[in-house]
C-alpha cells in the first residue's frame, strides 16, 4: 500500500495513469508523445507504477503495451472509503470504460493478481478438472497439449460445456494460451476469443496475468471485466487458504 500511495503522490505518474485510463494498452512511445518529458524519465516513472502494481505490461511482438491495473485502487477503496460509508468511487472505472471502447489488435482485458504459491500449483489450479470445479463452478477438461481441444464443463452432472476451444500454447508451468468459443458457434473463427495465462514466480509468490482478447462485442467485454476478478479471487483464496471463498463471488449484489 505504501508503494501505491508513493506512486500516486507524483503528478507525472498520475498523468500517466490518466493517459492509460483514457486509452489502455499504450506503448512507451505513445505515452512519451503525450508527456513533455524525456523517454528515460517516463520509463523511470512507469517503473515506479509497475512496482506499485498500478501498471501491468504485456509484450506483443517487439512492443511492450502498458495497462492500468485497477486492483490496488480497489483495495484503497475498500480500506479507506467503503468503511466510512462515503460515496463510492469507481476504482474499477478504467475496466468498465475499457469494455465500452472498441479495441482491435490489442488485448481487450488484462488482469494481474499476486498469489502466495508456486507456479506449479497455479498451473494445476488452472488446468486440473477437480480444482477448477472447486473454485470456478466448471471443470476445465483437456490433456493440455498444444493443438488439443479443451472444454469448460458444468459441474451439475449434465456434461454440458459452456465454452470450448483449442490449446494454442502450453508451456507448464509458466504460460497457457487457449481459444474460447460458444459450442454452438464452434467453427466460426470470427467469434473466437483468446485467453493467455502468464505465470511469473518471484521468491515465495507468483504473479498471474490473464489476458483476454478478441472479444466479440461490448457485452462480452462487460462480462469478462466482472467475471475474471471474481474467478481469480476464488482461485487465490483456494491456493492461499486451502478453500475457495465462502460464497461465490460472482453472485455478490451489484457485481
UniProtKB/TrEMBL annotation:
CDD domains: HTH_ARSR, SRPBCC_CalC_Aha1-like_GntR-HTH. Pfam families: AHSA1, HTH_20. Transmembrane segments: none annotated. Residues 1-88 form the HTH arsR-type domain. Gene3D superfamilies: 3.30.530.20, Winged helix-like DNA-binding domain superfamily/Winged helix DNA-binding domain. SMART domains: HTH_ARSR. SUPFAM superfamilies: Bet v1-like, Winged helix' DNA-binding domain. PANTHER family: TRANSCRIPTIONAL REGULATORY PROTEIN. Belongs to the AHA1 family. This is Metalloregulator ArsR/SmtB family transcription factor.
Amino acid at each position: 500500500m505504501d508503494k501505491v500511495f508513493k506512486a500516486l503522490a507524483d503528478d507525472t505518474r498520475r498523468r500517466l495513469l490518466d493517459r492509460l485510463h483514457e486509452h489502455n494498452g499504450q506503448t512507451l512511445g505513445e505515452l512519451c508523445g503525450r508527456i513533455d518529458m524525456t523517454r528515460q524519465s517516463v520509463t523511470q516513472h512507469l517503473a515506479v507504477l509497475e512496482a506499485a502494481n498500478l501498471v501491468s505490461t504485456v509484450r506483443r511482438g517487439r512492443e511492450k503495451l502498458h495497462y492500468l491495473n485497477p486492483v490496488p485502487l480497489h483495495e484503497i477503496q475498500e480500506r479507506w472509503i467503503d468503511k466510512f460509508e462515503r460515496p463510492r468511487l469507481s476504482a474499477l472505472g478504467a475496466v468498465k470504460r475499457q469494455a465500452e471502447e472498441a479495441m482491435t489488435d490489442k488485448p481487450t482485458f488484462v488482469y494481474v493478481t499476486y498469489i502466495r504459491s508456486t507456479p506449479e500449483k497455479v498451473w494445476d489450479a488452472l488446468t486440473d478438472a477437480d480444482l477448477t470445479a472447486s473454485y470456478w463452478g466448471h471443470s476445465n477438461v483437456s490433456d493440455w497439449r498444444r493443438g488439443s481441444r479443451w472444454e469448460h464443463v458444468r459441474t451439475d452432472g449434465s456434461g454440458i460445456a459452456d465454452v470450448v476451444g483449442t490449446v494454442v500454447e502450453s508451456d507448464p508451468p509458466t504460460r497457457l494460451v487457449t481459444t474460447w468459443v460458444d459450442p454452438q458457434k464452434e467453427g466460426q473463427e470470427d467469434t473466437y476469443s483468446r485467453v493467455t495465462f502468464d505465470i511469473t514466480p518471484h521468491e515465495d509468490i507468483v504473479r498471474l496475468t490473464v489476458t483476454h482478447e478478441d472479444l466479440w462485442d461490448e457485452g462480452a467485454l462487460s462480462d469478462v471485466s466482472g467475471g475474471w476478478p471474481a474467478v481469480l479471487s476464488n482461485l487465490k483464496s483456494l491456493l492461499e487458504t486451502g478453500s475457495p471463498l465462502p460464497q461465490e463471488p460472482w453472485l455478490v449484489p451489484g457485481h
